[in-house]
Amino acid sequence: MTPQEYQERMFSIFSNLKNDIPDGRTPRSITVVRSGALTSWLEPVTARESASEESIGLFSEWRERHNWWFPAQFQVTKTGTERWLKAGLLDKSDRMLFWVVVPDNGHSRKIGHLGLFRINPEDYSCEADNIVRGEVAPKGTMTDALKALMAWTFSVLGNRALELTVYDDNPRAIALYDRCGFKAIKRIPLKRVEEPGMVRWEELPDELPGCSLPAERYFLKMRVEQ
Predict the structure, then answer these.
(1) How far apart are the C-alpha atoms of 79 and 146, rounded to whole Å?
(2) Coil, strand or helix: which one is 78?
């Protein structure tokens, strides 16, 4: 598969999943099994979510609760979440998000989400993205979910590697990624940038002779290869 074919394959599968179009290359949901038993599954976030009060509410609530761990912090609103869902996810050809769903007394319950972003056809990789546990779940659920997503990207999408970025002051998340085989490859110094209604964390430019800015926080870039 050429780099262009790899990229087009991902765009096509992502689009079909987000628009509920059957695709013979992949199941609609990714099952998560431990010791032979179904423990959870990954359900694609689709265009229908834009009209779902429940979905908008969960995205907003979880985003607000985990605000500190995102690259930007701001006041979360349902209106803003609706805009992000369309422009930041559904309309982006290189972005895919899945709910993490667990069985619950004969029903099902969404407990978090995770996804993929920023396809790099040059080395057949993309980023694991938006990994959030929003609700209490059985121990190991998010680890199993991420491992299932990784296996799907390697077997169905043709990925050769996955990368992700995490704050280095988030040991709980780093431990999760360690368990899934990710290894740190770079530590990135950050500066705090304040804007009206928002705080962003930006990568510091390369140091110049006689000009050095102190880092206020760090990203850790991690990578796993097939």
Answers:
(1) 29
(2) helix
How far apart CA 181 and CA 179 sit, in angstroms, is: 6
CA 176 – CA 187 distance, rounded (Å): 18
N residues, the chain: 226
* Helices marked H in the chain: 3-18, 53-65, 78-83, 141-152, 171-179
- Rounded Cα gap, residues 146 and 208, in angstroms: 39
pLDDT digits (tens, 9 = 90+) for 35-48: 889 999 999 999 99
pTM of this prediction?
Answer: 0.94
The tens digit of pLDDT for each residue in 96-127 reads 999 999 998 889 999 999 999 999 999 999 99
Q: Do 190 and 204 touch, CB atoms closer than 8 A?
A: yes
Q: CA 57, 61, 62, 68 torsion: positive or negative?
A: positive
Q: Any idea what DSSP says for residue 12?
A: H
Contacts (Cβ under 8 Å, ≥6 apart) of 57: 78
What are the strands, taking DSSP E only, across 160-226? 161-167, 183-195, 198-203, 217-225
